[in-house]
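Handout, section 3.2

Students often ask what a structure token actually looks like in practice. Rather than define it abstractly, here is a full record for Demethylmenaquinone methyltransferase. The first block is the sequence as you would receive it.
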Amino acid sequence: MDKRPDEVSGMFSDVARGYDRTNDLLSVGNSVLWRIATVNAIDPQPGERILDVAAGTGTSSAAIAKRGATVVAVDFSPGMIEEGRRRHPELEFIEADAERLPFGDEEFDAVTISFGLRNIAHPLVALGELYRVLKPGGRLVICEFSHPPSALMRAGYEAYLKVALPLVAKLSSTNPAAYRYLVESIQQWPDQQQLSKWIRGVGFTRVAHRNLTAGVVALHRGRKPVDPAIRASAARRRGPRKPTT
């Protein structure tokens, strides 16, 4: 989709206060299970520094921090950041664009983004930034909506997206239009194999994914290679970094 960052940011600011409640309803409680799976995949360790991009209100960031790691929560929506700081004053929140992260090279032991990559105007640029700020040997974990491999499951999921989800959003959200965008962004987002190719394309190795909830969501993982020659090759493929101003 043609995503205008300012419009997407404003849309998320509008729904920030009730965002987590509505997500729990729309996912029929599965959002909690997806979060647990994501945190387990990250495997946070005490003393590690972990970057959580598109952190929203900080629900996932707080779950990661409970494992003893230091978490930096980044989001491009001022409303989400404000709500996150109100709920989790113990966390560090930074308002920033995932395509131009305000961090130096190789700062983090792990980087993660949940249900946010498809909201970024240039997801490949964002993946390159995640690679850049990750330490050699560091871990990438992406949790994102995907496409069920089963034809029967896909049909049922499409029906849910078209009929049930808009109805629940209308009853529970302060901005139902935001959830029309949600449906469109899910439908137009690439499948598991294509996202895996993107992740490999920016330089990550050991790329793999597993489906959650029959493929409604996919959990993708990768590693930044330790070998400097492999990292240099990946940097050449990505090209020059976008300016921060």
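Discussion prompt for tutorial groups: Strands lie at 49-53, 70-75, 92-95, 108-114, 134-145, 205-212, 217-223. How would you have guessed this from the sequence alone?
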